[in-house]
Amino acid sequence: MSAVGYHPYDLEPSLIEAGTYATRRQVRLDVAAMVNVMTALLYLIPGTLIVPNMSFAGRPALLLAFGLFCWWALTRLNRRLAMSGPQPMRWAAFAYLAGTTASYLAGMLRGLPGTEANAQNFAMLQLLQFLGITLIMADGIPNWTRLKSVLRFFVWCAGYMAVIGIIQSTAKINLAEYLVLPGLEVKGGIIGFSERGSDFFRVASTAAHYIEFSAIMAIAVPFGIHFARFGELKRHRRAAAVCTLLCAAALPMSISRTGVVALGAVLVIMMIQWGWRMRYNIALLTVVVVGGLVVVRPGLLGTVTYMFTGADEDPSISGRTDDYHLVGHWFAQRPILGRGPNTLVPELYQGLVLDNQWLYTVVTQGLVGVAVFAGMHLCAIVLAVIAWRRSERVEDRHLCAALVSAQVVSLLVAATVDSLWFTTFAVTVFLLMGACGAVWRLTHPARHVRTSGVPRPLD
Questions:
Q1: Which residues contact 278 (CB under 8 A, 6 or more apart)?
Q2: Closest by Cα among 54, 93, 57 to 73
Q3: Residues 212, 214, 216, 221: what is their CA dihedral angle, to the nearest 10 degrees?
Q4: Residue 22 in 3-state DSSP?
Q5: What positions does the domain O-antigen ligase-related occupy (predicted)?
Q6: How would you class 206 by CB atoms within 10 Å of its CB: exposed for 0-12, middle for 13-18, buried for 19 or more?
Q7: pLDDT at 454
Q8: In this structure, what is the dihedral angle of CA atoms 338, 342, 348, 354, given to the nearest 10 degrees?
């Protein structure tokens, strides 16, 4: 029990035989390993790469996520294949699936043109991919060690994405164009640079949008801080610290208000868990990062600041708000179940895009859709808070706080962009929802809930 890397709960009474113990630290190609493969495919290659002749649901990472959903579903067919005990994230996921299905049927009943019907089908397929990663994380991660390995690998991948973004911004070389893998095709083109102001341009790294890139960087920061403080090995702590600084430095290079607000929300939530010494250290590091940006990219911080002070003159904001009067019109027609998921197709409405996931959901899925979408986030927050209250170690409470901050950021980002369209961000959020379910299970006092084993046949 004193070996480095063991969590106090890594050994527990086994269901094999009374009075025996079984380790939950098994080295094999398990759920955590497959989730890490999916995360690598999600972050290391551009978000617009797909399997040929498929839609954006054909991203390699999303196809693997669908495979994980199938894996989870197959384990539910036999009690000896699934871990026993309750899991609230299952009920939240089922409610989300049921609410979206109801909107899907309502859309079919009103009669849809082919383009909208295809959009609905795409939405349902993508939903299964999103829920697959949540369910497999909530039910399939066997112990704290494997959970931390998934989240640590996420931090490393975010650090890689940050490096690509920093090189793009400082050298004005779009490395994403050179990351196209053989056998995959680019759908919609690799996102390039976007001019912002007179002397600066926005970068997106391997993400599909500048806002998506900035939001991911904000979400990764608290997890990077966590592993920089509590990593089991010195090299892990150092790598996490470097990745955290890279993510914090890369975020302003997207020149996005959303990213700045998201990072601010993350730090406010994490401060609840931190002591005064930690708050002082983070403030000092913030000054160092800001000073480094002033040297490396003179004028960048002024451009970011002007996005807030000059918001009244920003056409990107007026472009969003000018379309909002249509929301009330469409909502009044179908307030309960909406028009059908993803049926507000820009090609049919003169390029109209509602850059607000909440408004998009209320139009396409009605009040039911908004309720189940919010329910997924609120369930994840509640489970992480419960796990925080149960935890006895500072390390575990800190991880739970980071998981809460990720869900709060997701709620905020959804108010500034149609977040479910950007699959790197969406899959990351659903992965962390599943992690909230995992920490709830791993802190549960009941053995039959916490166990990583499956029921064994009795002799």
A1: none
A2: 93
A3: -170
A4: strand
A5: 244-374
A6: buried
A7: 53
A8: 80
Supply the pLDDT for residue 170.
86
Contact 226, 365 (CB under 8 A): no
Residue type, 196: R
Read off the tokens for 110: 């009103």
Distance CA 32, CA 149 (A): 7
The whole-angstrom separation of Cα 82 and Cα 97 is 21
What is the spatial distance between Cα 223 and Cα 244, in angstroms, rounded to a whole number? 8
Amino acid 307: pLDDT: 64
pLDDT in tens, 250-264: 888 888 888 888 998
Distance of CA 126 to the CA centre of its chain: 14
The pLDDT value recorded for residue 197 is: 62
Residue 70, C-beta contacts closer than 8 angstroms, at least 6 positions apart = 132
Query: What mean pLDDT is predicted for residues 114-121?
Result: 88
Q: Which residue has the tokens 């959901």?
A: 361
- Calculate the dihedral angle through the C-alpha atoms of 370, 371, 375, 376, rounding to the nearest 10 degrees: -40
Q: What are 237-243's contacts with CB under 8 Å, separation 24+?
A: 239/156, 239/159, 240/152, 240/155, 242/159, 243/155, 243/156, 243/158, 243/159, 243/162
**Token pair 């909107």 in the structure block, residue:** 103
Chain segment 395-448, per-residue pLDDT in tens: 999 999 999 999 999 999 998 888 898 999 999 999 999 999 999 998 888 755
Cβ-based neighbour number of residue 8 at 10 Å: 11
Q: For the chain, count helices (H), then strands (E).
A: 17, 6
Per-domain boundaries in the chain: 32-450
The strand ranges marked E within 160-244 are 185-186, 194-196, 200-202
Q: Identify residue 430 by its one-letter amino acid code.
A: F
Would the CA dihedral through 278, 280, 286, 288 be positive or negative?
Answer: negative
pTM of the model: 0.89
165 DSSP 8-state letter: H
pLDDT tier, 3 (very low <50, low <70, confident <90, very high otherwise): very low
Q: Which residues contact 393 (CB under 8 A, 6 or more apart)?
A: 8
Distance CA 188, CA 183 (A): 16
Distances (CA, A) of 16 to 12, 23, 365: 11, 12, 47
Q: What does the alpha-carbon distance between residue 423 and residue 417 come to, in Å, rounded to a whole number?
A: 13
Q: Find where tokens 């299952």 sit.
A: 90
